[in-house]
Amino acid sequence: MKKPEVTIYTDGACSPNPGKGGWAALLISREKKLRRELSGSERDSTNNRMELTAVLMGIRALKRPTHVRIITDSQYVKQAFTEGWLENWQHNGWRTAAKKPVKNDDLWRELLLAFEPHIVEWEWVRGHAGNEENNRCDELAVEARLALDP
Q1: So what's the pLDDT on residue 32?
Q2: pTM of the model
Q3: Which one of 22, 40, 42, 51 is the catalytic residue?
Q4: Chain centroid offset of residue 67 CA
Q5: How many CA atoms lie within 13 A of 84 on its CB side?
């Protein structure tokens, strides 16, 4: 049986960085003609943590094994999966090549577990460059961040 196909656009926002953060994920299923927007915030975060959280929350929203295309404007997130960074970090006991602890290893570990039942493909888009869905994620992430008390 063919796995359903879903595209997930993601974005994170933090200002200042570190500081108040927001994340957003936009799930699109062309087969079922569905579109779902998710967003949230954290009082004390970083831009990279918000980028990772957006992907994690998007994946967690899937109810069954899925063929997923994740579209992000974060090279940090994409390259960790596509350039072998995660495999190296795991092999090195969650340490970088410089022997320093990997930042955000809690989220990386959660993502690895969340990805297990899925087939995941990655695509990078330039942020703020006219991609309608990426721009929508940016709006949602900023709105979530701004919704925190001043």
Answers
A1: 77
A2: 0.95
A3: 51
A4: 16
A5: 4
Structure tokens at 59: 């994946």
Catalytic residue among 21, 22, 42, 73, which? Answer: 73
C-alpha distance from residue 84 to each of 30, 39, 139 (Å): 30, 28, 31
What are the backbone dihedrals phi and psi of residue 126, each rounded to the nearest 5 degrees, phi first? -70, 130
73 is catalytic: yes
Domains parsed from the chain with CATH numbers:
5-146 (3.30.420.10)
Which residues, in sequence order, are CB contacts of 109 under 8 Å at separation 6+?
none
Residue type, position 51, single letter: E
Which residue among 11, 22, 42, 58 is the active-site one?
11
In three-state secondary structure terms, 77 is helix
Model pLDDT, residue 127: 84
Query: What is the spatial distance between Cα 114 and Cα 18, in angstroms, rounded to a whole number?
Result: 26
Q: What is the pLDDT of residues 131-144, one digit of tens each?
A: 999 999 999 999 99
